[in-house]
Amino acid sequence: MARYGRLTAMTILPETDVARIQEWCSARVPEHARDQVRVEADIAERHVTIVECRPPWRPEAGPEWTRLPVARLRYTKSTKKWSLYWRDRNLKFHIYDRLPADTDVDVLLTEINQDPTAIFWG
């Protein structure tokens, strides 16, 4: 039940990389826990935002799940490289300077997964 953007003519993101990011998000949470937490990819024209989603913690909070951005992967068409960004407490994104931009999106997904600085998952 992930909410993914659609690749359109305006989107410059490589389709195979976007599919890889979506697969990574789906694999992040075991099937039995997906009613408690999900990881989704919100696709924009030049970036993909990894989002952690949680159900309402109280019935009066409503039916909508909360969505908290975890990381952003930004694509530069001229270099064909992905850059990794982290989110601060004010929901602003900043370049993750411990890892250079890379043509292989899996390198960045591995860094998010390992989270050596605890900046993505806490």
Automatic annotation (TrEMBL):
Domain of life of the organism encoding this protein: Bacteria
InterPro entries, per the entry: DUF3024 (IPR021388)
Identification of the protein by name: Transposase
